[in-house]
Every structure is written in C-alpha cells, then in structure tokens.
Amino acid sequence: MSLTPASGIGRFYKQSAKIIRFVRQGCTNRPFYHIVVMERRKNQHQPVIEQVGSYDPLPNDFNERLVALNTERIRFWLGKGAHLSVPAAELLGIAGLLPIHPRTYMTAWRNRRKAADEAQAEATSS
Amino acid sequence: MLPMARSILNGLVQITRSSRGAAFHTSSLMGCKAADTESNNTGDNADTDADATESSTQSSVPDVNDRTKVIPVESSIRYLKSAAYKQTYGDGFVWSQYRRNHKGMYAPRKTRKTCIRQGKISTGNPCPICRDEYLVLDHRNTELIDQFISPHSGEVLSYSKTGLCQKSHLRLLVAVQRARDYGLLTYDVPFREYDYSEYYGQPKQKQQKS
Amino acid sequence: MSLFRHIRSLNALQILRPGRRHLSTASLQYDQDPQPLFTDAETQSLLQSMTQLQLDKVFRKRTVPDNSTEMKFMTPDQLEKEFVQAIEKARHLLQMPPIVKVKVDTERLISKDAALKDFASTKYVFTDITYGLPQSERKVVVRESDGTLAYANLETVKRMNQLYFPLEGRKSYIPRMFTDEELLKSALDTHKYEFILDRATVQYEPYEPEFHNILSRVFEHLNESKQFDLLRSTRHFGPMAFFYAWHRCIDDLLYDMIRRDYLHNAAELIALSYKIHKIPLDYRSTLEQISALRSTPAEKALEDLRNSIQAPEERQRVGGIEQEIHLAIGKTENDFASDEICLKFIEQYIASEHALKKVQLELAIQTLKEVNLEKLQLFKGLKKAHGVNVN
C-alpha cells in the first residue's frame, strides 16, 4: 500500500456512477478505513477520486471510535449525485450529517433484545 | 585488561588520598598518558599488575570484567563531578577518546550489539559507557546525557560517532526521552505562533456563537 | 522496538492512572476576565516597551535541525532592507501568548434518540477535517452509545485537533514535568523559567486552567527569586509584568528595573498598574513626555544594528565625536532628560500608599541618582573637552 494524496489519483469519468464508500486499509487483524469517493464499478483497491475521511473501528484508550469527515467535500459529492454505500450511510447518519440509517435502528434494537434476553436468562438460572 | 575503573571507583572516599594509581590505569586505557603521572606511578603500577595476575588464581580479588554489581545513579552523578573523572577524561566527552577496533578500512555500519554478556565484559574494547562501570545512563544523570547531545541540532548523537554499543545506545535514547519529559534536560521548544483572532475574536462574533 | 514499547507503557500509565497527580494550585489567579485590559492598545505598547528587544537574546543560537548560516554580498540598500526584516522577525518572535479567562466546559446537546440505545458498544467521535478552518471553529461531535449526539468537551476537542492537525512540540500526553509537583519544583529551583513557560505555551491552550496555574506558579516563584532578567526580551516578559501589575506586587520587579537603570520601564510599569487598578493619577502626560524623548525598542534595535556594521572611522565621520561620547557613556541628552521625568514619577509612586517596599526602592533610587549625576558630569565634561556645545 503506497500513500496517495487525499485529492486522489483516480481518473474522473463524467458519466459514470460515483460512490462514497469505505476502503479497507490497515493490515491483518487491524482494520482501518478510508472514506473515499470513487467509481462505483471499481474494486476498492483501485485509485480513488478523492479521500473525504477516515474511520478507525477499533476503540482507543478512551473507548472511542474515531471518525474524521471532510464534511464540505462530502456534501459536495452528495450534491453531485454520488451514491452512498450502506456502512458509509450508517456512519454519516450517526454523525448527524444525514438522517439515521434504518439499519442502525435495527442493530440497536437487536442489541437491546439480546441484552434483555441475556438478563432474563441470568435471572431464571439464578 | 587492567583493573581500571573499578579500582578508581571502589570508594570515592579514597580518591583524594590515593588517586594517582587509579588514574594511571584508566588514563593508560584511554590512551591519554599524562607524563608526570606515569613517571610517578611506575612502582605503583607494578604492584597492581601483580594484583591483576593474582586475581585469576585467588578468588578473593574481584574480577575486573564483572559487571553484576549495580551502581546507583547517585554515585555516578558524584563521580562525574569528582577529581578522578576529571583526571581520566579531562575536559573532553567520555566518548571522544574512544576508537572502534575493526578489520579493514571502514568500520561496520552498526556497533556491536552489547559489550556485557552474562554479567561480564565480553570484549576487549568495550564501548565508552560499558568500559567505565561508574557511568550510569539514567534520566537523572543529566551531566552524562548532555555529552551525547549535539549542540547544533539538539539530537542524540549517532552511535557511529560515539561508538556506543547498541544496548547502551538504546538505554541512552530512553534516558534522554525521560529526562526531557521530566524537565531535567532543557531543549529548544518549537516556537508557537498564536493567531490572536482565535482567542480574542470580535465581540460580535462571540455573541453570535453563544 | 523496546524503546517504543517502553515509552508507550509510560504514556499508558499516565493516561490510565485514575487519580492523576495534579499540581497544587497557585495562590494568585485572575479573578475576572483579564483579556479586555490585556489586549488594550495602550497596555500592549507598554508591555512591548517593557519587554525590550535585545537582538542577541531573541536570535540566540537554537538547536534546530537546520542551523546553517548564509553569507551574502549586499548593497547598502539591500542591507537596510535586511535589517528591517530582521527587526520584524524579532518582533514576531516576541509575540506574547494571549491572556484570556479560563474557558468553562458547557454541555451542548444536538439530539437525543432513545431508539438508538445500544447501537454500538463504544462511543463515536466525529471530527470535521474540512480544509482551511481555524482550530477554534473545527467541530467535534460525540455520539454516545445511548444515542445522544453532543458537541465534544474541550479536552476531547484538543485531543482530536492534536491528532488530525498536530502542533509541533505538543505531546499527546501531558509531560511528567507538569503533572509531578516535585519535578516542576526542581525545574523552578534551577531557574528554567523560560523553558517551562515555552513548554507550557506549546502544551496548553491559553484558556486552560492548567496553563493559568503553571504561569502563576512560575511568576510567583520568579517574584521570590528575583531573576527577572532571565525573561527580559522574551515573549513571556509582557504577561509577567501584567501578572504582577494585576496582583499588586510590582515592587520587586520595579526594584530590579531601577537597579538595572531601566527607569523608563519602571515608569511604564507603574503606569500600567495605575491603569489596571484605575487609580486616579495622571500617567498619560508622563508617558507621552518619555515616549517623545525615547525611541521604541524596535527603533533602538535597528539603530544598534546599523551602528554595529559601521567601522570606527566611518562612525566618527558620520556621527562625529558626539556619538562617540554617547557610546562611551551609554546615554544621550534625551536619555538624561527622560530619566529626570521618570525619577519624578517613580518618587511620586514610592511616596504614595501603593508602594509596599518603600525603603528598598528609595535606597535604589538614591544610588541611581548618584550614579546618574556622576555620569552627567562626565558627559558634560567630555563634551566641553571636545568642544561640542552643551545646552
């Protein structure tokens, strides 16, 4: 993996579909994502048009997951009609930039149900 | 090797009284022979040489290459201020008189991994820190650490210049980092430029924000 | 590798230690917002004048990666331009750290969504990395795992700013020097004032309580050790003088200034304290008189620079014997005149109820007067001997 400028080195085709999505960087067992704008049809390790943020899914010492977003450019690309991948849309929803994605609500609901089930199971067993 | 530093430093109390013999051993090792000390101490030298040869046969005399004894930093700091240190190293740095031994014209890029193996000096030409057991690398020992910092760039001097073994060099890096963190070692802090408008701002803008 | 591990463990220890040792707070703190008074144009000019501009000290040799020098042939015009630039640069290096009140953390909620509870096990921190924004306007928001979205607290904002836009010299952890009482004390006792202050300016933001605390600690210690000259002509002298004036303890600094024959600075310091505490005494007219007789530090430094390259013969040709005399004595007629005015002003202060160490100050004034009188006599005698007219 070589570093490319955040402005990207990918070719820009006027008519093709663009997408804001994650690109997995990092290494084995250590995921790290770049949030990028790229051609929808391309594979994630192809050159990107622009990098608009980063996402570190592993919590740090303070138990936080860090996300950096270049909001100005994200809004620009969304206005240009760029698509959004689901994980990216979820993240932008959590950030308060977009309405919260339905899938986030589903995960939250599932997590709560699982916690309640576990609590119940514990109560019955003891 | 001669029972060099050990005999100097066994008791710093004795230094003032009989520093002549001890200083001679170290200075001969350092290659900086003060003519008068040499002439004064020929007899003394013979005595201690005899001691050194005896040490192999008699177990009562301590081994000069033995480095298992831990020297506290405080005595190292005192040593750096003592007359014995002054006589041994003069005004120079502890590393300035050291020369690496190597085959051929060019020295290997890296120095040796360590001079001390299993609590003993395992080489004939130990690095400037390892050869003198009273030089202890520690963040409190700023006088010693200072000798390894470039006065021009403020960086730690490379081992290719100082000749420290890799282990000592690593210890030095740790000591420098710690000393800087603790504020014992001063360095030039990068200049911070303030954008006043960020802190003072315009009163109108402040009202808008709040 | 093991070095990194070592340092990492050291850092982790500091972060994770629950009751991090905090410094004992200094006794003197700004009780109200000092910023309007500090940023006032008059105060700023007073502080800059008190700071002085000693080029040797401002441009002292620093340990920076590139310490090379450049030699050039220049025409006098180019040289003059270079001088002006050097003075500009020096003034920039003397930029005072801002003095603002401590910022209080306020909780600013954006939205609370109960349906989002437990959507993730950790919280998310979002940083806006849009290009070209100033640090203070950069938005950092936090989504807690219970679904609330709020602006991050100051500590997180600082951490994120340092992560995405690092400031050179700032550590991601607080240096042990600032957390350990004993280390700070030993640094203070060895008079590393400038180093501590420099480091504090880099490590902390001016509105942080720790910054205020460390500054007060240093200034209080300095007031006891009386090594004010260590900070003269550095960026911290202005804040220091302001601190003393604010807390009504200028007497030691005043004594130091008188002893070193910086009478105009002493007068400015008194004027500053009058201004801060709104004491109804007219200081403006005195200041105007002094400023009319004296050049500003920048002008003086420029003058010194110009003189420094002149050969002795040339200097004699340009300025004549008069300048030689000025150089030998270290003072000009204007200086003597301004000293007179300053002395009057200072004596007035000492006589008033605001001065606390009257005897000491009076003695200093007395000795200075005698020295000045001798100098003046010598000055006049020299002038007479060389046939320069004395008025």
From TrEMBL, chain A:
Pfam families: Ribosomal_S16. The keyword Protein transport does not apply. InterPro entries: Ribosomal_bS16, Ribosomal_bS16_dom_sf. Keywords: Mitochondrion, Ribonucleoprotein, Ribosomal protein. The keyword Ribonucleoprotein applies. It is found in: Mitochondrion. One of its GO terms (biological process) is mitochondrial translation. One of its GO terms (cellular component) is mitochondrial inner membrane. Its main location: mitochondrion. GO terms for molecular function: structural constituent of ribosome. Belongs to the bacterial ribosomal protein bS16 family. This is Small ribosomal subunit protein bS16m.
TrEMBL record, chain B:
SUPFAM superfamilies: Ribosomal protein S18 (SSF46911). Residues 35-67 are annotated as: Disordered. It holds the Pfam family Ribosomal_S18. It comes from Drosophila willistoni. PROSITE patterns: PROKAR_LIPOPROTEIN. Signal peptide: none annotated. InterPro entries: MRPS18B, Ribosomal_bS18, Ribosomal_bS18_sf. This is Small ribosomal subunit protein mS40. Transmembrane segments: none annotated.
From TrEMBL, chain C:
Pfam families: MRP-S22. One of its GO terms (molecular function) is structural constituent of ribosome. GO terms for cellular component: mitochondrial small ribosomal subunit. It comes from the Eukaryota. This is 28S ribosomal protein S22, mitochondrial.
